[in-house]
Write a structure and sequence with these properties.
This protein has a two-stranded antiparallel ribbon with strand order 1-2. It has 76 residues and is mainly alpha-helical. The chain is globular, with a radius of gyration of 14 Å.
Length: 76
């Protein structure tokens, strides 16, 4: 399973209350679309992107007992 959204939109490898969940800055570069987001806007991203991805991962792991979960975080 691949996450099709950038971690700069919402980082699906972070828990809900992580300060890095929706970064306003990355490697010294401002992310204007993430500046001053309201709690409701972050919640909307959580519900639209983060939750469905994790729900699918859970569903697949439940479907295939004994599966091995391997995650890869790529860097440029």
């Amino acid at each position: 399973l691949l996450q099709r959204y950038s971690r700069l939109v919402i980082d699906c490898n972070r828990p809900r209350h992580s300060p890095a969940l929706v970064p306003a800055q990355s490697d010294g570069t401002e992310i204007p679309a993430n500046r001053d987001l309201s709690a409701a806007e972050i919640e909307a991203r959580w519900n639209a992107i983060h939750r469905p991805f994790h729900d699918l991962v859970s569903e697949r792991l439940d479907r295939w007992p004994g599966s091995l979960l391997v995650t890869v975080h790529s860097f440029t």
